[in-house]
Description:
Chain B: One of its GO terms (molecular function) is protocatechuate 3,4-dioxygenase activity. Chain B: Residues 27-122 form the Intradiol ring-cleavage dioxygenases domain. The structure holds two protein chains of two kinds. Chain A is of the alpha+beta class. Helices cover 13% and strands 21% of the residues of chain A. Chain A is built from four helices and twelve strands, in the order H-E-E-E-E-E-E-E-E-E-H-H-E-E-E-H. By secondary structure, chain B is mainly beta. Classes of the chains: A alpha+beta, B mainly beta. Strand 1 of chain A pairs parallel with strand 10 (188-189) of chain B. The complex binds fe (iii) ion (FE).
Amino acid sequence: xxxxxxxxxxxxxxxxxAYDKAVAGGAPVQHHPPRDYAPYRSxxxxxxxxxxxxxxxxDPETVELSGPVFGPTDITEIDNDLTVQHQGEPLGERxxxxxxxxxxxxRPVRGQLIELWQANASGxxxxxxxxxxxxxxxNFTGVGRTLTDDQGRYVFRTIKxxxxxxxxxxxxxxPAHIHFSVFGTAFTQRLVTQMYFPNDPxxxxxxxxxxxxxxxxxxxxxxxxxxxLSQPEFSLGYEWDIVLDGPSATWIEEGR
Amino acid sequence: MAENTTGHVLPTPxxxxxxxxxxxxxFPEGEQVAPKGHPDQITLHGYVLDGEGKPIPxxxxxxxxxxxxxxxxxxxGSLRRNPVTGGYLGRNGTDFTGxxxxxxxxxxxxxxxxxxxxxxxxxYISVCVFARGLLHHLYTRAYLADGADPLxxxxxxxxxxxxxxxxxxxxTYRFDIRLQGEGExxxxxxx
Lengths: 256, 191
Ligand SMILES: [Fe+3]
């Protein structure tokens, strides 16, 4: 049985209504998606059914309260410019994506690694398993890395990725997005997420974005168009801050 | 920036790593945390399995651990790059970074080559699991020995066993990760 978009819409709306009702009844706000979110079909056999086991966060010997470190040897200077990694210019709308990496106290996370990957302007990944019939761009791979500066700021130059189809259900399309992988000062702050572009008409239909059932949390996945970040005759600017979650025990440590 | 009433800024939600991280996240020698040829090298390996016991070929695992001397400071150089060509140089062969990243293969298998962790208490390697279908990563621990431990001691026997890697021949430890169902691995949160 192949599911249609309207089948998925019903499930998405049921989950949304259940969440909204729970919060209205005093349940805590959920900043992250539940792992068992049926509209995203791949999750069905991949979430633990047992509750997570809490590790007391306050013990300084808890290995996870520290984390890997990265430095200038881990990147090269052009790793954050995805438009200059090949002989020619990639096709598409050039953009700058910039923002700050912060902890939950709003303090910058300094000198830490941010990685990103994305589809090209046609919505095709330079990945063997992406077989959707949109053209590859020989001048675009779609992988970038950088280290945050002393203010926790990062900057990437890239092109705007296209929307692409996937096989979750019939006529499933992902809104344009950039995948981000981020480290904090503790392994418990690890985050892999996706950045979206404002006003995308595909938002309501996408089970991956809608898995974040809290509307204001969902809004935090959407970058803001920033005219001041746009460069004349060259690129459009998007601003997106990333705030790392983590146990309360890590919030009192000085950010790197 | 969104703030809640306690002055904490609100976190960015997690999203799945998806199916196409394979050309972006894994890096050469991501599995080789021990300097090559180090006499103390150990192997941690196993399968990542779904709720039907089927291997998961599109998971990526990250590992973080104390150095053999117990240090948790880590060191840069896991993804070491050549500043001239932009190519990968791989690890420098002497610094112990404590960090590994390994994608599962077509059989859902991974292998990590590292040095014994010297953390206080029972030695363990912290594991973070990402996969298509996982909207939020999962943490677990691969203990390299059984014994008194606040976390292990808090678990019933059959669940405890899912966190203890089994020592085999040639300093090899087997650690399977079952995301769901029978023998489901204990996954952790850090409140
Ligand atoms: Fe994607």
